């Protein structure tokens, strides 16, 4: 049976309340930079790196693309993976400076394909950038979503691609707006964090097994949220 995503949305909204646009960052390029920096890191680490880039005026795509990799490496060291993330940030910045103005003329599939061609932009990151930076419909098939659906009795495919293919009919039936998709992702993450906290508390008070919070594109509860759920314009 296909998941009823509208029912899940209503259930999570009742449990956690509105999340707003949710993903941290003010300007779309800053959001995209954060999506790269938080890969395999905690949001607190990524936030230190974002703050350092902001202080140097490097949250503008052209400026970041023109900055030597060694300089970027020192600024984003707090986010980890110093041999990968500076290179990936500069690749994203170069793509953004060249292609972001043309994005309104691209289909959703064309945009995702171009993003996937940028060094370091995997499927999850491409969906996050498509949704939160360019206001395109996308569902993040991450570990939080997998666990949320598994908790509701669904056998969720393990790979990102298979998960996306499996969930597509449910998304079509739900007919979410872009703002609702952003809200749903935030709600799913809040549910995952609440479940992880409950497991942690259970482990401290008794023999119930605990599990670490899943990795991925997941800002912490300290991350800022916009007051209104609306797609930002590309800059």
Topology at a glance:
Layout: H1 5-16, H2 28-37, H3 43-55, H4 61-65, H5 69-76, H6 85-99, H7 108-116, H8 123-134, H9 143-151, H10 160-174, H11 178-205
Helix pairs in contact: 1-11, 2-3, 2-6, 2-8, 5-6, 7-8, 9-11
Labels describing this entry:
11 helices, 235 residues, 0% strand, mainly alpha, 58% helix
Care to describe what's here?
The protein is mainly alpha-helical and 235 residues long. It contains 11 helices and no strands. Helix 1 crosses helix 11. The chain is globular, with a radius of gyration of 18 Å. The termini are far apart.
Structural class: mainly alpha
**Strand elements, count:** 0
Low-confidence runs of at least 5 consecutive residues: 208-235
Main beta sheet, described? none
Mean pLDDT: 88
* Number of alpha- plus pi-helical segments: 11
Strand content: under 5%
Helicity level, as a percent range?
Answer: 55-70%
Task: Give, in order, the helices and strands.
Answer: HHHHHHHHHHH
Structure at a glance:
The protein is mainly alpha-helical and 235 residues long. The protein is 58% helix and 0% strand.
């Amino acid at each position: 049976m296909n998941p009823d995503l509208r029912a899940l949305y209503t259930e999570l909204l009742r449990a956690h309340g509105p999340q707003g646009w949710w993903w941290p960052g003010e300007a779309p390029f800053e959001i995209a930079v954060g999506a790269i920096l938080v890969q395999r890191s905690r949001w607190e680490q990524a936030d230190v790196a974002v703050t350092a880039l902001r202080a140097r005026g490097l949250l503008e795509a052209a400026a970041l693309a023109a900055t030597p990799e060694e300089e970027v490496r020192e600024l984003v060291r707090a986010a980890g993976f110093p041999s990968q993330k500076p290179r990936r940030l500069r690749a994203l910045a170069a793509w953004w400076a060249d292609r972001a103005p043309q994005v309104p003329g691209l289909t959703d599939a064309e945009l995702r394909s171009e993003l996937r061609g940028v060094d370091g932009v995997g499927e999850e990151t491409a969906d996050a950038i498509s949704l939160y930076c360019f206001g395109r419909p996308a569902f993040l098939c991450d570990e939080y979503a997998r666990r949320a659906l598994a908790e509701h009795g669904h056998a969720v495919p393990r790979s990102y691609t298979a998960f996306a293919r499996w969930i597509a009919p449910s998304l079509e039936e739900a007919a979410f707006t872009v703002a609702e998709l952003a809200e749903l992702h935030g709600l799913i993450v809040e549910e995952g964090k609440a479940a992880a906290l409950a497991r942690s508390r259970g482990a401290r008070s008794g023999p119930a097994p605990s599990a670490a919070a899943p990795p991925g594109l997941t800002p912490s509860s300290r991350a800022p949220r916009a007051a209104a759920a609306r797609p930002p314009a590309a800059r």
